[in-house]
Amino acid sequence: MVAALLADQFESHRGHLLAVAYRMTGSVADAEDAVQESWLRLAGAAQSEIEDLRAWLTTVVSRLCLDRLRSAAVRRESYVGQWLPEPVVTPLAGAGGSDPLAAVVLRQEFRLAALVVLDQLTPPQRVAFVLHEGLEVPYGEIATILDITAEAARQLAARARRAVREQTPQPVADSEHEVAVQQLLVAIATGDAQAVAAVLHPDAVMIGDSGGTTPTAHNVIFGPDKVSRLFLGLIRRYGLDRPGEDFMADGVEFVRVNGQLGALFKARPGDGVYPGFPSRVMGFTVVDGLIRGAYDIANPAKLSGIRTD
After folding, report:
1. Positive/negative CA dihedral, 209, 69, 118, 156
2. Cα(278)–Cα(267) distance, rounded to whole angstroms?
3. Is residue 228 part of a domain?
4. Domain with 12 in it: what CATH number?
5. Contact, 11 vs 29, CB < 8 A?
6. pLDDT tens digits for 73-88?
């Protein structure tokens, strides 16, 4: 009976813990692992010493996420190409049913562009920012998690807050975002580089993350002309523009990528003429009605957050 009650109490906090862990790590797999580990630690803890279960679990998850962030920083040193956060991909209709993470990413702070900015922070900055700005955890408690002074925790959060404020684009209405994404994919289908460039922002950026598994933008691509050429180059490379091919109908599924309209390019095998490729997800940032950021996530290891079935 006691074990069942504890399990029920833990489940009541699962959505909160997943939200904290995902925003801290930018990784669906790491977030789920951290939450599961927090349950194991709870099961082995002395219950009489836990005054506030939600706060206790948040602290445990934060420490676990800090370890994972530091591990990820080491992995990046040998990672092939650019590094992007893992997306949460859900169908257009609904938000993934009862999936707590799919519901959480509908909030602005979980949009892909916001996570890309958080990825530029150091692990301690990210933990301090998420805990203080998102959850209003006192600096003293953050200091204990990071093993620093409260003043140092305050400074970390302040630097992170400034970076996030300066680099995160202002959100636009979902309707504006959707029109811009649809215009981009229609333009790509024409094969006209000028048509593609016309729907891209003057400061357009494309970032690809495949971990070396398949061709993408291995470096950050700047400017509408270069981004449009890369888009069309990938289409031609994989034969998505071959006669009789309608990649919009046959190869692309509109989905929600962290709550906003994006695209899921379905995997296809090679055919002797064109190479095959794994599934890939594209998320976008829109500014002034134009595509400002395009994020091509093609590393299969970073697509555990697809929830379209």
Report:
1. negative
2. 4
3. yes
4. 1.20.140.160
5. no
6. 999 989 999 999 999 9
